[in-house]
Amino acid sequence: MGFSDKHSLPLLLFFFHLLLFFMSTADHNDLPKLGASNKKVSALLVFGDSTVDPGNNNNLSTVFKSNFLPYGRDFATGQMPTGRFTDGRLTTDFIASYVGVKEYVPAYLDSTLSIQEMMTGVSFASGGSGYDPLTPRLSNVIPISKQLQYFGEYKKRLESANGKQRTEDHINKAIFIISAGTNDFVVNYFSLPIRRRSFTVPAYHQFLLQHLQDFIQGLCDGGARKIAVVGLPPIGCLPVVVSLFSNTAAISKRGCIDQYSSVARDYNLMLQNELNLMQPSLANHGARVYYVDIYGPLIDMIQSPGKFGFDKVNVGCCGTGYVEASLFCNPTSYVCSDASKYVFWDSIHPTEKAYHNLFNGIRSTVDLIVNST
Description:
The protein is of the alpha/beta class. It contains 14 helices and 7 strands. The N and C termini lie far apart (42 Å). About 8% of the residues have low confidence.
């Protein structure tokens, strides 16, 4: 399978216009919980991209930010654009609430966080990041390697407050979540010729997995014992991908482009195999890694929307829903009246309701991680 340079121009123009722009309710209070008394999980520590970034990009010089309305329009505490790339909460917020550590996972770079707030979990993730070191450079966001450094800094701050042994015990009981990879393909491999000149798709898969393997080893060396790695979504169903990569005949139908989703499926299979191969060496450190499938729950929402109460699956709620994201989804944009009818909030990111459904789809995996010893 090849991806020719003719697909690069539309997306490059999109990001160019985005750069120019930069320069010049769903109620889930009934969410079931394991309970605040749960002692099996001490914290939720999150790494990756915009699917799990609650605001680390807010003060970066990048177009990949969302600390303004209409982002956060349906946040549980009222209209609050925290920097989450959706209308409300992320899947990691629902997980944190479910396991009983906190209601929302804050951004590590939030300067107002107390040590007590940090102890129960933070996200180091950065919208626009990826496993490929080139990907965050394209967007001027926080690389995965820097997120790992921030984790080391986080540990030192906890050690200063609680001592080395207590901090080590605390980290050992935390759940680590890694969610990245989509930008490596959508922003990088599919849209620019740089990596395509050096890597076939399978070779690029392996390139990304090697970086992920190194990252997991770094977490394990830092005390991580319960590590969850999220697979890729059906990339060919993202509204921005449908808009920019559909041929003329298919664009009016706005159906998923299986050529791109198949890349995600192949990657997910390779990822699962790689994680299985890592298990023995991780077990020597008392650690375990888990695969988290989001492809299945998301494609189920897209293919059977009525089952979940959705009306729109191929456009976002904000703007036209075709290409708008980040600074193109802003206070002057048209926004749909009821985001709960949409799978996607903007042209890339799911709505809070879709994120909640993703949580429901992976809840059994969360239970498995929580109850592991």
